[in-house]
Amino acid sequence: MSNFKNLVEKLKGLKTQDMFMNDFFLTWEKTDDELNAVWTVADALRDLRQRNISTKVFDSGLGISLFRDNSTRTRFSFASACNLLGLEVQDLDEGKSQIAHGETVRETANMISFMADVIGIRDDMYIGKGNAYMHEVADSVEAGYKDGVLEQRPTLVNLQCDIDHPTQCMADALHVIHEFGGIENLKGKKIAMSWAYSPSYGKPLSVPQGVIGLFTRLGMDVVLAHPEGYEVMPEVAEVAKKQAAECGGKFTVTNDMKEAFKDADIVYPKSWAPFAAMEKRTNLYAEGDSEGIKALEKELLAQNANHKDWACTEEMMKLTKDGKALYLHCLPADITGVSCKEGEVDASVFDRYRDPLYKEASFKPYVIAAMILLEKFKDPAKVLEQLEARGQDRIFSEK
Amino acid sequence: MSNFKNLVEKLKGLKTQDMFMNDFFLTWEKTDDELNAVWTVADALRDLRQRNISTKVFDSGLGISLFRDNSTRTRFSFASACNLLGLEVQDLDEGKSQIAHGETVRETANMISFMADVIGIRDDMYIGKGNAYMHEVADSVEAGYKDGVLEQRPTLVNLQCDIDHPTQCMADALHVIHEFGGIENLKGKKIAMSWAYSPSYGKPLSVPQGVIGLFTRLGMDVVLAHPEGYEVMPEVAEVAKKQAAECGGKFTVTNDMKEAFKDADIVYPKSWAPFAAMEKRTNLYAEGDSEGIKALEKELLAQNANHKDWACTEEMMKLTKDGKALYLHCLPADITGVSCKEGEVDASVFDRYRDPLYKEASFKPYVIAAMILLEKFKDPAKVLEQLEARGQDRIFSEK
Amino acid sequence: MSNFKNLVEKLKGLKTQDMFMNDFFLTWEKTDDELNAVWTVADALRDLRQRNISTKVFDSGLGISLFRDNSTRTRFSFASACNLLGLEVQDLDEGKSQIAHGETVRETANMISFMADVIGIRDDMYIGKGNAYMHEVADSVEAGYKDGVLEQRPTLVNLQCDIDHPTQCMADALHVIHEFGGIENLKGKKIAMSWAYSPSYGKPLSVPQGVIGLFTRLGMDVVLAHPEGYEVMPEVAEVAKKQAAECGGKFTVTNDMKEAFKDADIVYPKSWAPFAAMEKRTNLYAEGDSEGIKALEKELLAQNANHKDWACTEEMMKLTKDGKALYLHCLPADITGVSCKEGEVDASVFDRYRDPLYKEASFKPYVIAAMILLEKFKDPAKVLEQLEARGQDRIFSEK
């Protein structure tokens, strides 16, 4: 049986009905079947595209993107996913928009959605804000749909919030699944999600949180390592703990990077800002206290600088399983001697893992496309089968 | 007979030939048949989309958008309309463009139009400029087409100028037609287009002008209300007066908001800047007199503040027909206690009309798409029939 | 035989295999057959579009654009070309992107290319940089493709670099070919590529270099005229000399505009900055020496002002062949009394040639589309034949 048929058969066995006409906020709000369906559809879409079979399921329609933070990878991934399915991206550039002072989210959300099939939002800067904003948008368009204002219910994809970065972590996981030859091979494997030093300030917590919130689902031995004071949101740590217990895995927190790297099968060393500091910053922004923000930034950079030894060096890598753990990063990484004097990772380590890192990134467009497809179609397996049967060329082929 | 067939039959009885290969500048330059055709095609396109039938009539082609003022609603409406018909929007961002100092409009217009099927322009800031600029663009591409420079004649849609806001007012009217169960039910109905207080400065005149220029066509009792000094362009008031006389309606101007609201079937309370002040501002900008502009702004805000009692309060609403007039607004509204301390409308009034207001806005993408379709096809009824017959899914359907 | 069939037959006789999966950097890196193929495919695509036959060869896919300099003409030409073939343009706006300080070109290039079929880059500001950057991008995606990171190899189109402006010059040449009734009629014809005075500063050298690097291929008598000190890159002058010798043409450099215009069949008067000054500027930018940049700008404007007599006046035009040389320009031109007090060309000369100038520009979208088509298809003649046979309407036609 072809790989594609296998994927479709697998999908048929998964319960995905609740994803239909629904949003994707946090991975831990989804069932195992639903996460599995995302990976399966992502692989199936990739298989079709590789065989030059068009996966356009929309003949018109908009994918609205709203980025409240600069982005290249996620922006292009969302644009690629929409294009792959036939949606045209329309960016809500808040700078160019006439969004009145005090205009409600409810109003803006409806005004941009008359012909929107999907909305992708990145809003990761402020603790307690991003995810809440996404929910407000989703509730608004749900109400608009029910009240007959919108002809279709645009569904939402969380392109990174203050809590989770589901499209990134689902792509990370799909990469790991491929590298280890299947999800079943991950049971018991050790992954070290570790803080690492960076000379820059205020990196979001959504990646480490997303990683511990997802990989504890897979029966893995998940270790979160960071210096004292770099704790993640306690609610997410709680989720990780609970899931590990339920799935026969482990979740440990340590302040020792070496302990985390010891015999690890996978390492994910990455900088982030302390949760408490991010909360403080959110409040300072709300108060418009620019002096306070500057002072905080200085303080945080000084705090970071106390932990320059938290780096993914060649020496650290030797501690891992056979010295060959799979190195993960969401990119761009702070590479020592390349993008900064001292950073998250040695240049030689990064170089050795360049190809796998880029492949890791290559799953993101497919993961997003899979989320959209599962949100918009009640019977995704049938859609995939019919796309194959339709056999429309993606690129015109000379016969 | 289905609603769609009714619409197509109605369209067949309307004379639309002069719209073909022509532009849409002002509603009062169009015949009754032509306005009717826009509403009819808008309804028909909506009907097709609701039945998941694709209305893509372009297999490639560009819709050029040029916004000289911030915009969310109109920008998304134009993008939606183009997408619905199969055109890709290409934004002429004057900031990112190499438009030489002194470069003629004629040159720019031709340079962006080699593969443009439609051009949408919003240029509403300066009295005597916006509409004139649109004509210059249209004349330029007409000349380019005749001289063999352009292979097709891109047609223009006025997305708001200094004189009219036809896509907004045509959407407003289509909403009203639906609410009152048909255009024939509007005869004799009273609509109050009233100034209302806003703490912001320099709102365009195009909406009140567009409303009196359009609704006087429908045999309605149109009352324009504003404080002294807030007159609209005299030419447009003249048009309204003449049309009312011809169509068996009325057009009155009053300085008493209560008089306007008294027994009104529809109210449209909205802030705008005095015509004379807008003219003065245009000249100050032309002279680059920034001190003068600041002084004028201060003066206008003070003048506005004298009229804080011009607000659509619950008390005012009680004066209308059975206390239940249909409340219209182009959005965003200045809502008292929500978007500002004192504004155009009470929060409780706005909330009560939220759904109808959003529905009002939902007609705009279809109105724009209808204008484009009528500009590009000689036999629009046949196009609609053939689109239905083609029956191409908008969203892939699992069979 | 129809024009289209002639073009396809001609294309069949040209060797284009090396263009497949390859990039387009400089015209002089391409064979005569390859340049000929670009013009032939451009004409054929235009012929199909004029007959309302869709030339969409991609059912999904992205065309990435990266403009490091403001642009209207080239930006719209690239967007038009992509749209014509079915690619959606995704702009890499470096301002809105999260491109880390020190992030490698290799990484960015791969991250934006997961679903990119073509990349268009304009980077013309710094000597020794633009073309080198394009090669780095092309090498990066080539490596990404070979390493299995990218599923397809995005090919590159140079939309203007520091050395050449191939899409402009190929469009210029196609215009000339049409005006003279065929490439064979250009042998021995004299073209004057002349510097002309402009009050602006630092115009790129890529147009004059592109013109002498291309037109010397056509057996023409190419004269490069400029004041002393306005030399172009010596390597390109060398290329022009060598090609002229090989192709039975001539390449002369003169400091006398009149000598260049004397009996010229074609004139291309245009301002550019001296190569030595551009090199100096590049270094000053690299050093961040803003005082030095200001001083250099002042110096260059003063130097320009010494040569106000270098203008394409009516008097100068009288020197040309029968006083009727074809006037070329890449636009926008600095027109005396229109866009500036004293500039490159008299208003009356410009006006007389407006239509041909706009037609010259109209070839650019087709030239870019032809480059893309030749880069993506092994058998372009078959593709064209099958597009004609498919006969898909570009604009829906009422039957």
TrEMBL record, chains A, B, C:
GO terms for molecular function: amino acid binding; ornithine carbamoyltransferase activity. This is Knotted carbamoyltransferase YgeW. Belongs to the aspartate/ornithine carbamoyltransferase superfamily. Keywords: Transferase. Residues 211-373 form the Aspartate/ornithine carbamoyltransferase Asp/Orn-binding domain. The keyword Transferase applies. One of its GO terms (biological process) is L-arginine biosynthetic process via ornithine. Pfam families: OTCace (PF00185), OTCace_N (PF02729). It comes from the Bacteria. Residues 25-176 form the Aspartate/ornithine carbamoyltransferase carbamoyl-P binding domain. InterPro entries: Asp/Orn_carbamoyltranf_P-bd, Asp/Orn_carbamoylTrfase, Asp/Orn_carbamoylTrfase_sf, Asp_carbamoyltransf_Asp/Orn-bd, Carbamoyltransferase_YgeW.
